[in-house]
Amino acid sequence: MFAVCVLIFVLNALFCVECNPSPVGDVVVERYSTPTACPREVKSGDHVRYHYNVTLLDGKTFDSSHQKGVPKVGLIGEGRLIAGIEKGIVGMCINERRKVTVPSHLAYGSAGAGDVVPPDATLVFDLHLLDLWNNADMVVTKTISTPKDCRRSIMRTDFARYHFNGTLLDGTLFDSSYAREQTHDSLVGEGWLIKGLDEGLLGMCVGEIRTIVIPPFKGYGEKGLGQEVPSQATLVYNILLVDIHNAKDNITVENQVVPESCTRKSVVGDYMRYHYNGTFLNGVTFDTSYQRNTTYNTYIGMGYVITGMDQGLLDVCVGETRRVIIPPHLAYGEQGAGKDIPGSAVLVFDVHIIDFHNPKDNISIEIIFKPEECNVTSEADDLIHYHYNCSLMDGTLLFASGNYENHQEALLGADKVIDGLDQGLRGMCVGERRVVTVPPHLGHGEKGATGVPGSAVLVFELELVNLEKGVPPGYLFVWLGDSPKELFDSLDINKNKEVPQEEFGEFIKLQVAEGKGRMKPGMDPEEIIADMFKNQDRNHDGLITPDELKLKVEEDQEREAAKHTEL
After folding, report:
1. 204 closest CA partner among 142, 246, 247, 138
2. How does pLDDT run across 243-293, given as a tens digit for each residue?
3. Catalytic residue flag (residue 82)
4. How far is the C-alpha of 390 from the C-alpha of 424, rounded, in Å?
5. d(CA 410, CA 389)
């Protein structure tokens, strides 16, 4: 028990100055390891944290902070350490190692220190300076690199995401966001961080790299932080600011390029096709539609996309490009989205509007040229020939009739072309030119077609080249005036009460030639005559008799009467 008491006495006395030094001799300092850079040296009034080994001149060690596993913390110039140490440690740099030989009158003098330090003993201290600070110190920041364009810097109440390496002043790493492969995310200036970081992060720009040196009283102080940060440790943070936002932020729209011609702007409920590049504020790409070589297609303003994008796609023109910056509370929030988008990330979308439409849209027609004389116009059942160019809204040419040998041909109303084009080709004069815009629900729909993207708005440049008037559905031939009162007598040229197919055909051709009747366009006249004859030759004997001959109008009337009778 006595030995323990003596040891405690020695350790307490080791760094006190309750001795009576004489003016003989001084400390001897041997600097055997010095750092390349020394921005600051120990001076009176500084606090220091250091490791030490103490030996007598015979090399016998009687005390060591290394053995204890805890460095010594002391205040220089206040008489709290033995005089020799206070003199010997002045001028030291961080990570410097020096040997300080202290004569007895600057150590424990003639009294010694119990059984551990004999009287008049010279002591040899091997010192390693780990940390240095002063009560007057402030947080020190140094910008390593900064982006050319800094439109916004951190202010109090902002939310910051940043990467960091945290070291002690001697370079010992105590924490790193890089090792965790995720940023540190925090409010700034609201007490979520240690005081030194709250101060040191202010004014940083996204992409800036900054070193922040924090004295212990603005770091973790006397308590330290677990095993990683010792008591009274100066902290050095190397910070890379990844992004920044404020809870009051709304979306920001930048870099708008609006086409000169903009006849319509997007509204809630429109269906839009657009390309985009999605990046973070630091420029790192997390997604792009261009790599998939397909647009992103969605309704806007209806919650099908993140709130910020819903807002950013309103009031745009076809062909417009813009940048939409979206704070996390209008994007994917604190949870992020999968592995690609971390929590609390600000998103930047550079978008290019390809086209948009509304499900209620009909076709739009712009007449470019119309002949002065236009007595006959196209309608259902007409056979038409026309030139066309088919493009997307951005001007991309998909198809052109000029690439084919003949004009394009279509029988209107016969489902030979998409509905929107069929409508757009009606009411045209020969020689007329028009531009017809067709929404996808009247075009090729969500699935698209070969060479046509899904949900694409199509633009047709049309010119009507030729027009053959048609006949009603179900008819092969129509009279352009009244039919002969005695139709069979007109058919029966040789008056034998029988009409063979050859005689029937001559009569029909004569009516067409004289402008009294019209056959269905787009079909071989001989096939039409054969079908018409077959319909009238009811007993299939190759002849039409007066009892067999009926106009199609009469047949239709008989069918309707039969239906009513059955009812």
Report:
1. 142
2. 999 999 999 999 899 999 898 999 999 999 999 999 999 999 999 999 999
3. yes
4. 13
5. 15
